[in-house]
Design a protein that fits this description.
Blueprint: H1 2-36, H2 39-48, H3 61-101, E1 132-142, E2 145-157, E3 162-173, E4 176-189, E5 193-206, E6 219-232, E7 235-246, E8 249-263, E9 266-275, E10 278-291, E11 295-306, E12 311-321, H4 328-334, H5 341-358
Antiparallel strand pairs: 1-2, 1-12, 2-3, 3-4, 4-5, 5-6, 6-7, 7-8, 8-9, 9-10, 10-11, 11-12
Helix pairs in contact: 1-3, 2-3
């Protein structure tokens, strides 16, 4: 499309140049034709002049008449050319008109979103326009204590639609010191709204050192939840809600505000809070008094009042850094969401004050003296008579009389020879060696050293030299000089003929095209990459695994066969039976 436009523009320029050249030629021929048209009068004057002696080098009247006749023919030709040139000029100008119209520059594009300075944010802007900071300083009254506070926030663009804000607050009152931090991760379209998650943790500590468990102990509060904002023209609905943990227990909480911008730099808010188990109303105002290329400064006031006479009023100033030159409404919707940590401090200060009203918990009392031993109780009643015992066992029988002596035992027969001992059985095969224990777990590899910093990028090469301007077109040839008038005949000296008009200067040649721009200089070499970080030490080798258990002993080989039994020895003769003993007397 651009090439076509350039070709049309070039054609239009050529037509305009041709029209100008034709106009110059038309002017020159008109002047010359007007001059030559006087020639017939000159011819009549020459014929009426009396004859006189002429110089040998002067032209005769016949010569003059021939010259005038030739000039008249030239005039007729020039007039005809005049008419053709006029028609050509009209045609060229008619054709050049539309082409010249295309030479007008295209309409300027709308300003980029970043160039916008006032009004509501436009669609399509990023969640966070650029890395930016917000710093507050304020003072006032929280419940019954005067105090001062400082807040700081940094908003970081994570991608086109997502951002992260980190908040902090430090404060002190006449009897407490406070500190806290928060994080907000969110999606946002500055023309529509915001959705994200929120978390914070804060503490509040008395300056005094009362016993543990008393009113001076440290109080803490933690919040976790979701946040959202909806943009409706100059009205913003803002809030965060979720779960709260504090000395008052675990419960839900919410912080809600309705913000209205009467002008781009004035913000008015009304809201409601439910924290620590109590409801509060809130109101605030902020006005941006100074704004610049990359900063802004505003003044603000914030007040709250709720159940149990919980109240706060803080007034201060706020500095915005980064994000460009912006109105207050655009800073709030394009850069940083609200910092809610002041709500944590108001809650903890109130809990401290309530604990002080209830007083300290006293120490545990000493253990009381052991009471005297009670008197001995009366003897119990006699038990019932036991049952009759079982009948005793029958007495043992009397001793049996002694047995008579045993007769002499006959001699023992000879012992048979011992049988041959069987061969020892073969040893059982050795049991299998137990499996080797698994190798101990290898220790963790040491952390890799940090990557060295990237080398600086080489400087961009200087721009190439601009090519020379094209040579200017040659100057047009100068028109021919007009004819010198004829010298009058000698005698009565005729008047000297009028000098002919100098021919019109030829039109200036067309300016040659501008020479092509020289090539851009080569980009400088990329800086040397930093050396890789040192590799961390290798972790220690894990301990050797345990040795496997020894294999069980192989089974015992079978016992060899028993040798044959030797022959039985001859049984000795039986001895004579002893006499029967006398029977003992009966018991």
């Amino acid at each position: 499309m651009l090439k076509s436009l350039f070709r049309r523009n070039g054609a239009a320029k050529g037509l305009v140049t041709a029209a100008a050249k034709l106009k110059y030629n038309l002017l020159a021929t008109s002047v010359l034709a007007g001059f030559v048209s006087l020639a017939p009068g000159s011819q009549v004057a020459a014929q009426a002049a009396p004859p006189s002696n002429t110089q040998p080098d002067q032209p005769s009247t016949a010569d003059l008449l021939r010259l005038i006749s030739g000039l008249q023919t030239s005039v007729d030709q020039l007039r005809a050319e005049n008419r053709e040139l006029k028609a050509e000029v009209e045609r060229v100008e008619a054709n050049a008109g539309p082409a010249i119209a295309t030479l007008s520059p295209p309409p300027a594009p709308p300003p980029a979103p970043s160039a916008q300075k006032d009004g509501l944010p436009e669609p399509g802007l990023p969640a966070v326009s650029a890395l930016n900071f917000k710093i507050d300083g304020s003072g006032g009254v929280i419940d019954n204590a005067g105090g001062a506070a400082a807040d700081a926030s940094i908003a970081i663009p994570l991608s086109h639609s997502y951002g992260l804000q980190l908040d902090s607050r430090a404060s002190f009152t006449t009897d407490n010191v406070y500190g806290g931090g928060a994080a907000q991760w969110f999606w946002r379209d500055p023309s529509k709204g915001l959705v994200g998650v929120y978390g914070s943790y804060s503490f509040d500590q008395d300056f005094t050192s009362a016993p543990a468990g008393g009113a001076s102990r440290m109080f803490t509060v933690a919040h976790a939840g979701v946040e959202g904002q909806l943009y409706l023209g100059r009205v913003s609905l803002e809030g965060v809600a979720g779960w709260e943990n504090s000395v008052a227990g675990n419960r839900a909480f919410d912080i809600v505000d309705v913000a209205f911008y009467p002008t781009d730099d004035l913000r008015l808010t009304l809201g409601q809070r439910y924290t620590g188990g109590f409801d509060k109303g809130a109101a605030g105002v902020e006005y941006q008094v100074v704004r610049g290329a990359n900063y802004g400064f505003s003044i603000f006031a914030q007040g709250e009042y709720g159940e149990q006479n919980e109240r706060a009023l803080m007034v201060g100033g706020r500095i915005y850094l980064g994000g460009g030159d912006k109105s207050l409404i655009r800073r709030n919707r394009e850069d940083d969401p609200p910092n809610y940590l002041s709500e944590d401090q108001f809650l903890l200060q109130h809990q401290h004050d309530q604990a002080a009203l209830n007083g300290h918990v006293g120490p545990t009392g000493a253990t009381g003296v052991t009471g005297a031993t009670g008197a001995r109780g009366a003897s119990g009643a006699s038990g019932a008579t036991g049952a009759t015992g079982a009948r005793g066992a029958t007495g043992a029988s009397g001793v049996t009389g002694a047995t008579g002596s045993t007769g002499v035992t006959g001699a023992t027969g000879a012992t048979g020879s011992q049988g041959v001992t069987g061969a020892t059985g073969a040893s059982g095969a050795n049991g299998f060696t137990g499996a080797t224990g698994s190798q101990g777990v290898t220790g963790p590899t040491g952390a890799t050293g940090a990557t060295g910093a990237s080398g600086f990028t080489g400087a961009t090469g200087s721009q190439g030299v601009t090519g020379p301007t094209g040579a200017t077109g040659a100057l047009g040839a100068t028109g021919a000089n007009g004819f010198t008038g004829a010298t009058g005949s000698q005698g009565v000296t005729g008047s000297t003929g009028a000098n002919g008009f100098t021919g019109a200067t030829g039109s200036q040649g067309v300016t040659g095209p501008t020479g092509a721009t020289g090539p851009i200089g080569a980009t400088g070499p990329t800086g040397v990459t930093g050396a890789p970080g040192v590799t961390g030490p290798t972790g220690a080798t894990g301990a050797d695994g345990f040795t496997g258990a020894t294999g069980s002993q192989g089974a015992t080989g079978p016992t060899g066969a028993t040798g044959p039994m030797g022959p039985t020895g001859v049984t000795g003769a039986s001895g004579a039976s002893g006499a029967t003993g006398v029977t003992g007397a009966a018991g």
